[in-house]
Amino acid sequence: MKxxxxxxxxxxxxxxxxxxxxxxxxLEIRPGEVFGFLGHNGAGKxxxxxxxxxxxxxxxxxxxxxxxxxxxxxxxxxRRTGVLTETPSLDERLTGRENLEIYAVLYGVPRAEVPGRIxxxxxxxxxxxxxxxxxxxxxxxMKQRLALARALLHEPELLFLDEPTSGLDPVGAxxxxxxxxxxxxxxxxxxxxxTH
Length: 196
Ligand code: ATP
Hints:
It contains six helices and seven strands. It has about 200 residues and is α/β, with parallel strands linked by helices. The chain is about 35% helix and about 25% strand. The model has no long low-confidence stretch (mean pLDDT about 95). Adenosine-5'-triphosphate binds near residues 43 and 45.
């Protein structure tokens, strides 16, 4: 028997005035899948991610994410998902480690687990040697890896990654792709990967 889908969408539609941003989208994503969601600029990827997280209401169609209704169950859903937006907002005045510490508090990570989780993310994302430097001094690739580490702090089952390699050079992009593959293969996380 196939496992229940993590994301089940049927005929999802969302308009902004005359613009149909998402037009009858139907898809299913199963546990542990890395689902590539491809589309040109303006195709509706970001709008879809916002609909799936309950940050926008659909105009039509049915959506279940982790068995929940995104708009109604938004707070629970967002506790169980991680989102990397196209332009992640790091606090550039804080160090890499402090950026993670603040999020750990916001996400309610059990206090005793915070130092260990942060350390292992910093090591896994090759940021440990620069952890005490301000994030404003990081390269674009390092900022992107820090934002990805931050999206994982609360150990979400499902990750929405909106163009996680945008602006990275080929080496930086490959590193991020390797990390995403590891998340799926070693930790069985489900990933919706939006890209051009
Ligand atoms: P990109 O690759 O450029 O990020 P995208 O695939 O993520 O694009 P969306 O950002 O979802 O695309 O936009 C889809 C369409 O919906 C676009 O025409 C956009 O202008 C429109 N749109 C998105 N959000 C809004 C909004 N809040 N108000 C009005 N129009 C919007």
